[in-house]
Hints:
Number of strands: 9
Number of domains: 1
Order of helices and strands: HEHEEEEEEEE
Amino acid sequence: MKRRVAIGAILAAAVFGTSAQAERKLQKLSAGQIRAKFAGMELTDEVHWRELYAHNGTVTSNSMGRKRTGKWGIEKDQLCIEFEEESPKCYEVWMAGRNVELRREGLLPLHGVLEPAATRGRP
């Protein structure tokens, strides 16, 4: 009997632990949370593109070999990015762990991960 209870407890812990991780949902960030999370970090899809959000409000993008610079800021709880010769684009920021979704009305969300800029070697 004790063995069955122990096995049941182990199975329950495994199921609830896995389900808690699976249910970890994206949460919308406020202006302060966006600034705290993005300043000094890189947003990347880990293959095709990465964007460095510097503390001074500049953003540097490298996408499929194309480099661009611009500026970033926060307006009305949205991350706003303006690259040279482009109009600004603002996004709601949703996060779970290091997973990020940038959402803009009428468009599919942009998925990426947020990581410290120093975690990878520079080309």
